[in-house]
Write a structure and sequence with these properties.
This protein has about 230 residues and is mostly helical. Helix content is about 70%, strand content about 0%. It contains 11 helices and no strands. Helix 3 crosses helix 4, helix 4 packs across helix 6 and helix 4 crosses helix 9. The protein is globular, with a radius of gyration of 18 Å. Ligand 9MD binds next to helix 2, helix 3, helix 4, helix 5 and helix 10. The site of the ligand O=C(NC1CCCCC1)[C@H]([C@@H]1CCCCO1)n1c(-c2ccc(Cl)cc2)nc2cc(F)c(Cl)cc21 has 22 residues, from helix 2, helix 3, helix 4, helix 5 and helix 10.
Length: about 230
Amino acid sequence: KEKVEITKEQQALMKIITDAYNRHQIPQDVAKKLLQDQYSAEENFLLLTEMATSQVQVLVEFTKNIPGFLSLDREDQIALLKGSAVEAMFLRSAQVFSRKMPSGHTEVLEERIRKSGISEEFITPMFNFYKSIGELHMVQEEQALLTTVTILTPDRPYVKDQQAVERLQETMLDVLRKLCVLQHPQEPQYFARLLGRLTELRTLSHYHTEMLVSWRMNDHKFTPLLCEIWDV
Ligand SMILES: O=C(NC1CCCCC1)[C@H]([C@@H]1CCCCO1)n1c(-c2ccc(Cl)cc2)nc2cc(F)c(Cl)cc21
């Protein structure tokens, strides 16, 4: 049985990424807001667009801390951000939803989101994804690395130097693989399960435009940044 060992460099890389990931979280806690009050579909939509807008800004700051990201071609940096923003938003939403909460809170949160204005047809796939992320009980380093791996997806539209992105992604995947083996020794398949969630994430993200335009209200308003990032 080969001894898995995280090198000093990989340890340093993981610390940089995890610290940046924890530093760059959206300011106010959307879960707390949703647990406090019930909102109308319009208020929920506004809350989502505000949260998503600030999360994109936070994502840009986070990527600046990914070693090697700023050395990529600048247009490729934009292509990677644009290509991963929706997935990063759903991944973050799943992580927020899966956080340990006082008993009963998760049920209230789920109910509020079910009734927030999202069309029925998207509720099940969305919560299936959130629950499958929750079942993984990821440590924060795994969450940070998984988001980083998602951002560094070489086959996003308009990426010119895919090899450069692939090299960076492989560096992160190697650390994540070792971390999974060390964190979940009883589950040799854990790393594979984790990557399988990225496939589920990509599928869910295909629905996001429909999810937004079918929000149960008229006149959906988006911020200029979201118009840039979302196909709306
Ligand atoms: O604001 C949200 N998520 C932010 C986005 C930036 C990162 C932090 C989390 C939304 C909420 C949904 C209800 C109405 C208010 O917005 N949201 C979504 C969601 C996201 C996209 C679509 Cl199209 C539909 C729903 N899933 C969530 C899971 C959760 F646990 C919580 Cl607390 C909120 C969640």
